[in-house]
Design brief:
There is one protein chain. The chain is of the alpha+beta class. A hairpin with a 2-residue loop joins strand 6 (about 105) and strand 7 (about 110-115). The chain is built from 2 helices and 7 strands. A 4-stranded antiparallel sheet has the order 1-2-7-6, with no helix packed on it. It has a domain at about 20-70 and about 80-115: Immunoglobulin-like (Sandwich). The protein is about 15% helix and about 35% strand.
């Protein structure tokens, strides 16, 4: 069911709803040691316009895209498909990560967040020393 929602429903909603309704489009990848999230967030001009928070199994990306040029009296916008305003997107991660060791970068409208996997996954047996 979750796979169907991500593969079929979300792409359709992204086409129909404004930017702020669903937030940026994301891609979540796994390497042997990391989870990497790529998010499309074009138009950010200042670091304070972006807030990334990571919990062990969730990433939340919030921000605000502002107009590059303020509207002046007499300006008449003919047509625009650009998205402006606040956005927020929370995405579940496929495995637990270590939030304290997350690295993030922003370049050319793409946010890249690299998170090391937590070696103690839920359900992992932990030996207990009874000394």
């Amino acid at each position: 069911m979750n796979h169907f929602f991500q593969e079929q429903v979300l792409p359709m909603l992204h086409k129909l709803l404004p930017y702020g309704e669903l937030g940026p489009r994301v891609e979540v990848r796994q390497t042997p040691n990391h989870v990497v999230v790529l998010a499309e967030v074009p138009g950010l001009r200042h670091p304070e316009h972006l807030d990334v928070r990571v919990q062990s199994t969730m990433i939340t990306i919030r921000g605000e895209v502002t107009r590059e040029l303020p509207e002046k009296e007499g300006d008449d916008l003919f047509y625009s498909e650009r998205m402006y305003g606040k956005f927020s997107r929370s995405v579940p991660l496929p495995v637990a990560v270590v939030p304290d060791r997350v690295e993030a970068s922003y370049q050319d409208g793409m946010l890249r967040v690299k998170m090391p996997k937590d070696s103690l996954q839920p359900g992992t047996h932990v030996p207990v020393d009874f000394s």
